[in-house]
Specification:
Order of helices and strands: EEEEEHEHEHEHEEHEH
CATH class of one domain: Alpha Beta
Mean pLDDT: 84
Number of strands: 11
Radius of gyration: 19 Å
CATH superfamily of one domain: Rhodanese-like domain
Structural class: alpha/beta
Number of helices: 6
Low-confidence stretches: 1-23, 243-249
CATH architecture of one domain: 3-Layer(aba) Sandwich
Length: 249
């Protein structure tokens, strides 16, 4: 997967690690990288500015400050989630946002269950819970999830078509290696999956479920450290508009 994001924003109030941030703030002493001070992304039709908390004495005081959780189920995940799927960090996420996400060629998927999503998500992310990728290939949830990623359902191909595609797939021609009997993934988006962090198995389960359905491994990426490191770095978080949403607790 080639990781390659963003329009400038209007004034917006967003929640970043528990603080409201005015995106028109000028001084940026704590930058994203040595070449990037901040990044503007589209989140649900609104421009949101991703930047770091500028208070250098700020410390986490919520659940993501914990060092230990019972394992199982909260067990440390391997660095490589599956063959052919790359693992990315924040700098790669920023580039992905500037390029694939901004052009519509990519998606960032928050694979956590809705209760986690409502507490805060990474700007630009779409919430598709991991359960929708493991519900069964004929379930309405899985079909809808695949279509959100840009997959196209196919009519049952005939013997001639199947034989031709099997031959072409060996050479990687005509996108035949990105098709199954039920789905065409040749124009599906590049997708970055994430969840709560190295101790969270939700995005790994989503990725593995997707691969079992025939989704190309090279179109997947795994942001392993997820929300845990996103918050440790003081990066902007958006709390979805909901009466049930609790700001980062």
């Amino acid at each position: 997967m080639k990781l390659f994001f963003a329009k400038t924003s209007a004034l917006a109030l967003i929640v970043s690690a528990g603080f409201l941030v005015n995106t028109n703030a000028v001084a940026v002493d704590v930058k994203l990288t040595d070449y990037l001070a901040y990044l503007d992304v589209d989140h649900g039709g609104e421009q949101v500015r991703i930047q770091r908390i500028q208070d250098e004495d700020h410390k986490l005081n919520d659940g993501f400050a914990k060092t230990s959780r019972k394992c199982p189920p909260f067990c440390i995940q391997p660095m490589k989630v599956a063959p052919g799927v790359i693992t990315v960090g924040e700098a790669e996420i920023f580039r992905f946002m500037e390029r694939e996400l901004a052009t519509g060629k990519g998606m960032i998927v928050d694979a956590r269950t809705p209760s986690w999503y409502k507490k805060g998500t990474i700007p630009g992310s779409v919430n598709i819970p991991f359960t929708e990728f493991v519900a069964g290939e004929d379930s309405s949830e899985t079909i809808q999830a695949l279509e959100q990623l840009g997959a196209v359902r196919r009519d049952q191909p005939g013997w001639v078509t199947s034989s031709f595609e099997a031959l072409m797939a060996k050479f990687g021609w005509f996108g035949a290696d990105q098709k199954t009997e039920k789905w065409d993934f040749s124009n599906a988006r590049q997708v970055v999956f994430w969840c709560n962090g190295p101790w969270c198995g939700q995005s790994p389960r989503a990725i593995k479920g997707l691969l079992e359905l025939g989704f190309p491994a090279e179109k997947n990426a795994y942001y392993r450290v997820g929300m845990q490191m996103w918050k440790v770095l003081g990066l902007t978080i958006v709390v979805p508009e909901s009466a049930e949403a609790v700001a980062l607790k």
